[in-house]
């Protein structure tokens, strides 16, 4: 990207008026801002700056984005980098060994698309049908959403010569992607050898490659995933390098970086603008048409609450005048949790190759000259399945009954393969299980009426026992994969994590509670729903109930956490609501 805003596109910190004011220049915010700027005047307010400047190679080079992003450390020992990360922490998780978790969220132009793992995949036909049913709007079925998914994407087929990995040839339906949008979606030009073995382990226990890939409305079997990656340079593509760059020079979009939106201004229950703070200068950006909040899963509900929209009791406790009493603001938080089973392996991995002084120079040359080699490596392979009968039979009746409410093509567990550098240069392979249906419900609230005070985040992990039950089943299933034929070729020694001593269901659950992590897919804190649903915050056009001129457009409005990974759906929802606005809906 240009790494600078042209003077006329950099907003001036002074009172001004636009058609639309977008709060948050993240994944959804930059997408909707760029789309609206094609036909209207638009300002976007973003707390951060350019991640390429503030975080350097770690956020740009694919391998480093997997391993060098120290800010994704989920423990409270995370490194403090306030220029790029919001440094949010959860309240102690009482069903997860009382752990306090650091929950990384991008504070930069591009938001979390600038620090994510870049996997691009969608959810299932039945998941979007459920979304349509919950919100009472058929425009949310997969066939009706597909044009919006396609609109954002520019697909480049894999470069098989550079990948040079017959065991990792991506299979996909090219018709499902799209090719006219600004967001680059492609495959990495190098495949980590350990990952091909781990994929073979999952295939050996019945999870065959899905020939359509995971963007066609199906999530079952395995897939070599595409990523949001620029295939020419093998660098991250984010909402900033795609949508923002595309809008610069072509539209009148005004960007206010390093600026905190402090409050939405209302007159007679109509959103009129936003107060902003830039380096101590306080001013107002007024919206002739609408204010659009795209602050992400934790900050969108916070911005609504400090502006007077939320549960009445919470607002009153902080002396905030109530504009609309919406009890669902900050509720319904859904955070899929994950647990890994790891072993030492004898196969090389990307990290061992770049950490080794003998192989590092050639890795660097390949990356610089060919956009290939270990540095271009990204997350590779994921599988989904409905649990096989012998594992399903170990679930509690309550969990089985809860699962039975979901459609027959609903994936029940996700398995991600990964590889890490172990002690003394050793290589560790990991297969993790993630719940695809989050039964626990958490919340986001405020500790103060001041936006600068961090929100109070409680994902309430494992408050519904079904989530722990599912992960115990996942560990058992992964152990089957680690016992498969391909695994025997690469495994070294007894199981490294959790370790063979963790054996009974109770022991596995205890290990999970002490070690499970987020995969940073939290959603649904300003949930979309029908007007009759008291906990719904926005309608199916993302308009906030009880007020005019205000929408929320980001992952917080997902009615629930759909199986799959969310960024494709975040770009999609921003495209869809931009189209609604353009058509006067
Ligand atoms: C570490 C990590 C790995 C992930 N991996 C993947 C993956 O591989 N695949 C996938 O599909 N998804 C992945 N995700 C999830 C995905 O990236 C997010 O769900 C998605 O980017 C959320 O988009 P959003 O627009 O809702 O929020 P964000 O992109 O986070 O944008 C919110 C923006 O609002 C700004 N903001 C907030 N409050 C204010 C304020 N008061 N004033 C001004 N600005 C404000 C923030 O700085 C930020 O830029 C990952 C996420 C993380 C964090």
From TrEMBL:
Descriptive protein name: GMC oxidoreductase
Residue span(s) of domain Glucose-methanol-choline oxidoreductase N-terminal: 18-335
PANTHER family linked to this entry: DEHYDROGENASE PKFF-RELATED, GLUCOSE-METHANOL-CHOLINE GMC OXIDOREDUCTASE
Positions contributing to FAD binding: 520-521, 566-567
Limits of the Glucose-methanol-choline oxidoreductase C-terminal domain: 439-574
Catalytic residue list: 521 (proton donor), 565 (proton acceptor)
Cofactors required: FAD
Similarity comment: family membership: Belongs to the GMC oxidoreductase family.
Keywords noted in UniProt: FAD, Flavoprotein, Glycoprotein, Signal
One record GO biological process: secondary metabolite biosynthetic process
Single GO molecular function: oxidoreductase activity, acting on CH-OH group of donors
Pfam family, one: GMC_oxred_N
Superkingdom of origin: Eukaryota
């Amino acid at each position: 990207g240009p790494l600078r805003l042209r003077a006329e596109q950099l907003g001036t910190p002074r009172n001004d008026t636009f058609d639309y004011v977008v709060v948050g220049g993240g994944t959804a915010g930059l997408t909707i801002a760029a789309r609206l700027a094609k036909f209207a005047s638009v300002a976007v307010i973003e707390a951060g700056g350019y991640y390429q400047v503030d975080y350097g190679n770690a956020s740009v080079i694919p391998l480093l984005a997997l391993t060098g992003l120290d800010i994704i450390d989920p423990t409270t020992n995370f490194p403090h980098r306030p220029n790029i990360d919001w440094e949010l922490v959860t309240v102690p998780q009482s069903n997860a060994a009382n752990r306090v978790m650091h929950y990384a969220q991008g504070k930069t132009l591009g938001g979390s698309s600038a620090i994510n793992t870049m996997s691009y995949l969608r959810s299932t036909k039945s998941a979007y049908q459920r979304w349509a049913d919950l919100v009472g709007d058929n425009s949310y079925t997969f066939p009706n959403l597909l044009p919006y998914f396609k609109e954002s994407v520019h697909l480049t087929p894999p470069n098989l010569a550079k990948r040079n990995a017959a065991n990792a040839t991506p299979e996909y339906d090219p018709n499902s992607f799209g090719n006219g949008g600004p967001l680059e979606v492609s495959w990495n030009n190098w495949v980590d050898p350990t990952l091909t073995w781990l994929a073979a382990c999952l295939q050996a226990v019945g999870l065959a490659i899905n020939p359509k890939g995971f963007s066609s409305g199906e999530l079952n079997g395995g897939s070599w995933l595409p990523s949001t990656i620029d295939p020419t340079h093998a660098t991250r593509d984010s909402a900033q390098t795609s949508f923002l760059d595309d809008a610069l020079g072509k539209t009148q979009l005004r960007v206010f970086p390093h600026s905190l939106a402090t409050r939405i201004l209302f007159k007679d229950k109509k959103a009129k603008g936003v107060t902003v703070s830039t380096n101590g200068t306080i001013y107002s950006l007024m919206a002739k048409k609408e204010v659009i909040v795209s602050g992400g899963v934790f900050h969108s509900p916070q911005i609504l609450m400090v502006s007077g929209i939320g549960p009445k009791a919470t607002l009153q406790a902080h002396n905030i005048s109530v504009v609309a009493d919406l009890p669902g603001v900050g509720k319904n938080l859904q955070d899929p949790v994950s647990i890994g089973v790891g072993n030492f392996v004898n196969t090389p991995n990307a990290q061992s190759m770049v950490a080794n002084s003998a192989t590092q120079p050639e890795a660097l040359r390949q990356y610089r000259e060919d956009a290939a080699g270990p540095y271009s490596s990204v997350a590779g392979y994921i599988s989904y399945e409905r649990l096989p009968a012998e594992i399903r039979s170990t679930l509690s009746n309550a969990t089985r009954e809860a699962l039975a409410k979901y459609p027959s093509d609903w994936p029940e567990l996700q398995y991600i393969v990964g590889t890490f550098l172990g002690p003394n240069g050793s290589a560790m392979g990991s297969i993790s299980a993630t719940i695809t249906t989050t039964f626990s419900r958490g919340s986001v609230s405020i500790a103060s009426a001041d936006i600068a005070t961090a929100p109070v985040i409680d994902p309430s992990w494992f408050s519904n026992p079904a989530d722990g039950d599912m992960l115990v089943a996942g560990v058992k299933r992964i152990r089957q994969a680690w016992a498969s034929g391909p695994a025997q070729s690469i495994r070294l020694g007894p199981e490294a994590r959790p370790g063979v001593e963790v054996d009974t269901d109770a022991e596995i659950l205890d290990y999970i509670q002490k070690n499970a992590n987020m995969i940073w897919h939290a959603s649904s804190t300003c949930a979309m729903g029908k007007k009759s649903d008291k906990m719904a915050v926005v309608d199916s056009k993302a308009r906030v109930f009880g007020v005019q001129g205000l929408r929320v457009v980001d992952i917080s409005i997902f009615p629930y956490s759909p199986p799959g990974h969310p960024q494709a759906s975040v770009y999609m929802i921003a495209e869809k609501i931009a189209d609604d606005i353009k058509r006067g809906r």
